[in-house]
Design goal:
By secondary structure, the chain is α+β, with helices and mostly antiparallel strands. It has a single domain, classed as Thrombin, subunit H (Beta Barrel). It has nine helices and 21 strands. The strands form four sheets. A six-stranded antiparallel β-barrel has the order 7-8-9-12-11-10. The chain is globular.
């Protein structure tokens, strides 16, 4: 379960990257200046991403709080006050999300029938407990809408809310810290970092582990700023539901790498379509308020019975705000293996299912590409 904590380094395996123009980009030593791509590898892995921009309002907030020499991370921290976090809209309320979902869902339903899930030996990345360890008295939690985890609980501190700016507006999603060699990866939905076909990459992207609006300090482990964002090229080009997944590479906070400090959940690809899944996220539409980490548990199945679209579903009433939260397979009440993410629901309000991309070679390619960053 050990994880190697290394400084980010330049990667010869950078795929398709682009510089952002919506604001000044953070320095990303390992990846963002990635004009020198291996075309063959890019076609194979299909990952696209780049450095996170800091929008003008965040820079202004940073200068007001930290002075003229404010860093990008300080600017993002200054911008995302508790008040702005509460006011941020769930990404599901954005016009970009509605457009991407309509385009992707139509494409999925009209896809020619394919074979079922590819039978392939699973790839399992174990979880890592981090410097904070696993507190005593853990174990399987009873199924409940709100597990009421303390912020130190492994599932709570490796889950959190993501905050970002798209089209000049502030939005929020959910996400999960995942074990990796670089010790800096947070997994979320593709639409939580990029608005899909015809869209743009998010700016001023921040992650708050164990966010809890009931606490005097809703950010018990601080605000971590992303230095680069990566998603699948098929999501960016065509809003493909099967590729609605993304990784945010987080900068260090107080000298700590997020996985090394908080721990990270594991990852499982090619696990099959029928499994008991535990989904986590921050739904924000009534009867939920977006302030607490919630859990659904159910058996996954192929999303559509008559066509294999590389997507799976579970019965769950998660709604707006839960996008990007992780599905944990073999969850023991503390740790598990990310085997899906909250991508979309069947209807709003009152959803009955949550769908996820099936974690096959696509998820493995995204993991392999970002694990050393």
């Amino acid at each position: 379960m050990a994880v190697t904590t290394t400084r980010r380094r330049a990667s010869a395996r950078i795929l398709t990257a682009f510089a952002l123009t919506a604001g000044l980009a953070l320095a990303v030593p390992q990846s963002a200046a990635a004009a020198r791509d291996d075309a063959g590898l890019s076609a194979k892995a299909g990952v696209t991403g780049g450095a996170v921009a800091v929008h003008a309002e965040a820079w202004a907030a940073g200068r007001a709080k930290y002075g003229r020499n404010v860093t990008a991370a300080e600017a993002i921290d200054a911008f995302w006050t508790p008040e702005r976090m509460r006011a941020a809209r769930p990404i599901e309320e954005s016009p970009e999300y509605a457009r991407a979902m309509a385009k992707g869902t139509t494409a999925a339903k009209t896809t020619a029938p394919q074979a079922g899930a590819e039978a392939r030996k699973p790839t399992v990345i174990p979880p890592f407990e981090g410097a904070l360890g696993t507190p005593p008295g853990g174990g399987a939690s009873i199924q409940a809408i709100n597990p009421n985890f303390p912020s130190s609980h492994p599932t709570a501190r490796t889950s959190g809310k993501a905050f970002f700016v798209l089209g000049g507006l502030s939005y929020r999603c959910s996400g999960t810290v995942v074990n990796s060699a670089g010790a800096d990866t947070v997994w979320t939905a593709g639409h939580c970092v990029h608005s899909g076909a015809g869209g743009q990459l998010a700016s001023s992207w921040a992650f708050v582990p164990a966010y809890d609006d009931d606490l005097a300090n809703p950010r018990p482990f601080g605000t971590w700023s992303a230095v680069s964002l990566w998603t699948m090229t098929a999501w960016i080009n065509s809003s493909a539901p099967a590729e609605d997944m993304a990784v945010a590479i987080m900068g260090t906070l107080n000298g700590n790498h997020i996985v090394s400090y908080l721990g990270g959940q594991g990852l499982w690809t090619f696990a099959g379509t029928v499994n008991l899944q535990n989904a986590f996220g921050y739904p924000a539409q009534a009867p939920f308020d977006g302030g607490n980490l919630l859990r659904c548990a159910g058996t996954s199945s192929q999303e559509y019975s008559n066509v294999w679209t590389e997507t799976i579903k579970i019965p769950c009433n998660f709604n707006k705000g839960a996008s990007g939260g992780g599905w944990l397979l073999n969850w023991d009440g503390n740790w598990g293996l990310v085997n899906g993410i909250n991508s979309r629901v069947d209807q709003l309000p009152n959803p009955t299912i949550v769908a996820s991309p099936y974690f096959d070679g696509t998820a493995l390619a995204l993991y392999d590409f970002t694990k050393n960053m």
